[in-house]
Amino acid sequence: MMTSIVIPAFNEATMVASVVRAVKNKANQVIVVDDGSSDDTGQQAKRAGAIVLTHFLNRGQGAALQTGINFALKSNADIIVTFDADGQLNAEEIDKVVEPLILGGVDIVLGSRFLKPNSQIPVAKRVVLKLAVWVTNLYTGLKLTDTHNGFRAMSRLAAEKIRIRQDGMAHASEILEQVKKYRLKFIEVPITMYYTDYSIRKGQKLSNAFRIIWALIIDRVGR
Known about the structure:
9 helices; alpha/beta; 43% helix; 7-stranded mixed beta sheet; Spore Coat Polysaccharide Biosynthesis Protein SpsA, Chain A; single chain
């Protein structure tokens, strides 16, 4: 089965090369979507062995993911893994996330940091994430433990059905809404999230959580 890893990246020149090198042996291709970076994110990713797609303007993580997923589908990928560029995720866990798709019976596998024993999540981060979980579960009707996690794997069937229209961070909730809409079979698996000073600075703030909620409300009203 052909596996593609899609990594959205915005101003991640510090970390993206090491992330690409870490995941290269876990897939047939690594696709980095340089989402309008002002640094040399794209060049660093290409040197490390990734296929680099470029947005000339910063459109947001949701848009970058859809660009990468479209390319993976055109490359005949059977499994598409989404992965973060900031070094928070463990490349060695990709096999564990992909395994349920290989065994069959599910369409999408969702990583959850809250299922990992002794997960060291900073208090402020935990508050933001729990708020996001509550809102997204209410919005989608699903019952999940971690709703804004960039580590996921989807079958070709799921990737062809799911269309990300939310350019920003609200895309994570939008993906889950479509999981419910299309009755895609899913499973959560525990994954490790490493919190460094760098990743915390790059991460989501409480104000962004409210922006996500507002984007979801506008999206629902506009239908």
